[in-house]
């Protein structure tokens, strides 16, 4: 009898160690890079894929999911409520930035990362105070309170941000110069991503435009992929890891304009930023890369096309956002969590689990 129990015991240990090996595949990442294509639905991606000269970096992902985008008060979300869901794990009313309907703050993944002594960064092709990046660092009942949102950058010890929107830091109703305030908090202020030396230690505010950055077709160049590359280099100095959010803001604006060339040029640029994140993650082995959207814009469909001629016939059904699910792509340790269909708020929950952060 004792022998049988011993054999059973050994067997059970063997089986559970097999389970352990399996669960080891869901390792925790040291770093998370979250890339958000604002307004990027499946059709926007396939439109760019159809006309691109080379395969998209997005085609390399093996773990795919979808999230449901509706907000607390509307089937069709805006970028404030959409950003809040991704950044805090809470659905809120359209127009709100990481607060509930009474104005109470929700803590963001970036703020958690700061608490756990990780390095943090935000990169955007819009003003850095615009709804999507704002959702990760600011708290306001209106996404349009840009001056308050700029002020919120001083309340969090974010290590680096790169984007437009300098105007909301210097041309203010309260006459404050927030660049001075940032300098007092030991930020180096830089006026272009080319002039940003990511080898240096320190905290950086990189203002790439006074308002929004120009669109791709109007000379933005490689601002987004270069910013992504440099942000990773700067943040990777922390042994505890980093959280970086990168936004391709203007895929959404192409959708609002019902301008397919605007959509695809912005999407291909965003995909180049995804390629930078993936290249680092492949080399590093400890980085989880997540690519998703806050919502789809334009109700875009493709009614005809030619893959050889790289032509598409695009039709938009609205100049606003639509209510459809949007895709999620994940690579790296913890990526498997992102397969399936779930709520936009679960993107936050899954990132928290991946980092091993307790609320
Ligand atoms: Mg946005
Ligand atoms: Zn929009």
Task: Describe this structure as you would to a colleague.
- The chain has 359 residues and is of the alpha/beta class.
- The chain has a single domain (28-355), classed as Alkaline Phosphatase, subunit A, CATH 3.40.720.
- The chain is built from 12 helices and 14 strands.
- A hairpin with a 4-residue loop joins strand 10 and strand 11 (311-315).
- Helix 2 crosses helix 11 (260-284) and helix 9 (223-235) runs parallel beside helix 11.
- It is globular.
- Zinc ion (ZN) binds at residues 39, 79, 252, 256, 297, 321.
Quick summary:
With 359 residues, the chain is α/β, with parallel strands linked by helices. It has helices spanning 2-24, 42-51, 79-88, 109-115, 131-134, 146-152, 167-170, 178-184, 223-235, 251-256, 260-284, 345-355, and strands at 31-37, 63-68, 119-127, 160-164, 187-190, 203-207, 242-248, 287-292, 296-297, 301-306, 311-315, 321-322, 326-331, 340-343. It is 35% helix and 21% strand.
């Amino acid at each position: 009898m004792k022998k049988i129990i011993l054999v059973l015991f050994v067997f059970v240990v063997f089986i559970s160690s097999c389970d352990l090996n399996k669960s080891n595949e869901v390792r925790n990442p040291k770093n998370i890079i979250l890339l958000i294509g604002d307004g990027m639905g499946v059709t926007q991606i396939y439109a760019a894929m159809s006309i691109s000269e080379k395969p998209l970096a997005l085609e390399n992902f093996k773990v795919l999911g979808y999230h449901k985008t509706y907000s607390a008060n509307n089937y069709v979300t805006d970028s404030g409520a959409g950003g809040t869901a991704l950044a805090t794990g809470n659905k809120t009313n359209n127009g709100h930035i990481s607060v509930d309907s009474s104005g109470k703050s929700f803590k963001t993944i970036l703020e958690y990362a700061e608490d756990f002594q990780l390095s943090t960064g935000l990169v955007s092709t819009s003003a850095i105070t615009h709804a999507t990046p704002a959702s990760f660092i600011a708290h306001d009942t209106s996404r349009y309170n840009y001056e308050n949102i700029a002020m919120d950058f001083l309340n969090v010890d974010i290590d680096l941000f790169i984007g437009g929107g300098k105007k909301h830091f210097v041309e203010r109703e309260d006459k404050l110069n927030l660049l001075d305030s940032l300098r007092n908090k030991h930020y180096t202020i830089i006026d272009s991503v080319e002039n940003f030396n990511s080898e240096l230690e320190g905290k950086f505010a990189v203002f790439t435009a006074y308002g929004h950055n120009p669109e791709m077709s109007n000379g933005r160049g490689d601002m987004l992929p270069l910013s992504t590359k440099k942000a990773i280099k700067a943040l990777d100095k922390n042994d505890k890891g980093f959280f970086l959010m990168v936004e391709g803001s203007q895929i959404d604006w192409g959708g609002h304009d019902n301008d397919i060339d605007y959509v695809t040029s912005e999407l291909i640029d965003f995909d180049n930023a995804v390629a930078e994140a993936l290249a680092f993650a492949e080399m590093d082995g400890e980085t989880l890369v997540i690519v998703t959207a806050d919502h789809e814009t334009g109700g875009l469909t493709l009614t005809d096309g030619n893959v050889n001629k790289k032509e598409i016939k695009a039709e938009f059904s609205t100049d606003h956002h639509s209510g459809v699910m949007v895709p999620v792509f994940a690579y790296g340790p913890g990526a498997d969590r992102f397969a399936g269909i779930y709520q936009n708020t679960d993107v936050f929950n899954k990132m928290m689990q991946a980092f091993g952060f307790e609320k």
